[in-house]
Design brief:
By secondary structure, this protein is α/β, with parallel strands linked by helices. It is built from 12 helices and 10 strands.
């Protein structure tokens, strides 16, 4: 899932490669100028977001914590619902938070603040939040039990946790298409963190160890949007560490051909409304004990 927000495990800085020479470096130089504007993360998740927003059930007086808030779409939606409450959005990416603050300012939403911090270690006030939410922002913790324990402490007793996380990689059409298009063969990316909360038993074990109860996972299946056409989708895909790891395994002379194969594979998913891939996720809910 490509992002331009700088969240660990996803964003790829093509400027490093653009400093080299050859055809692939020239392509990266082009991408370094356009990747950030081609891909729209909120657009990618547009089919998931309404279901996640409904599952959060933010009340007008709620204090809300948004973990891994990125550029702030879920944060601002929570703030609009919590008209007499407040929302804190936390993310490790300063770049994403700058965009989120600008977004809140443009929208005239004032009951929201943002903090650049790792939620695993951030000194949240104890027993403060009515609900903690995260849209694909909790899969990257170095120590998941410690992270969710820290988050749970910040939630008042009987407060709620609502997460949106990916199901297993074999249920993600976008992953299969990218690896097939790049002719990955036996190559698989070392970073599996986007799918670290895919297993229901693992999720239950982590959350219960963190002091949460009544853990429930709801199966959600929606298509992902990767851009208006195959060329735009290819540029977006090259924001994935998964894709660049496979490209790195090819000889430089073979990389242009790999990119063209990728474009062809993406074109098979092109519709009149853009490039779409099947995907599956969990909406995870739990309560603070």
């Amino acid at each position: 899932m490509p992002q331009t927000t700088g969240r660990p495990g996803y964003a790829w800085d093509v400027r490093r490669r653009a400093a080299g020479t050859g055809t692939f470096a020239r392509r990266c130089a082009q991408l370094s100028r356009i990747v950030a504007v081609v891909f729209d993360y909120d657009a990618e998740l547009q089919r998931y977001h309404p279901q996640f927003r409904d599952a959060c059930r933010i009340g007008p007086d709620d204090a809300v914590l948004d973990v891994g808030c990125g550029t702030g779409q879920s944060t601002l939606d929570a703030a609009r619902a919590a008209v007499r409450g407040s929302v804190l959005g936390v993310d490790v990416s300063e770049r994403a938070l700058a965009a989120a603050r600008a977004r809140a300012e443009r929208a005239g939403v004032h009951n929201v603040t943002f903090a650049a911090s790792d939620a695993q270690r951030h000194p949240f006030p104890a027993n403060h939040f009515d609900v903690a939410i995260s849209r694909f922002g909790t899969m990257f913790f170095a120590d998941p039990v410690a992270a969710f324990t820290n988050i749970a402490r910040a939630v008042r007793p009987r407060g709620r946790l609502v997460l949106l996380v990916w199901q297993a990689v074999e249920h993600q059409e976008w992953v299969a298409t990218i690896l097939r298009g790049l002719d990955a063969g036996g190559i698989r990316p070392a970073d599996a963190s986007p799918f670290s909360l895919a297993d229901p038993d693992t999720v239950r074990g982590i959350l219960e160890a963190a002091g949460l109860a009544h853990v429930h996972l709801a199966d959600v299946r929606e298509p992902l949007y990767y851009g208006p056409d195959a060329a735009s989708a290819r540029d977006a895909v090259l924001g994935l560490q998964m894709a660049t790891a496979v490209l790195d395994a090819h000889a430089e002379a073979d990389r242009p051909r790999a990119l063209e194969r990728l474009r062809t594979a993406l074109a098979a998913h092109e519709t009149g409304d853009g490039v779409w891939f099947g995907s599956r996720a969990w909406i995870v809910t739990a309560d603070r004990r």
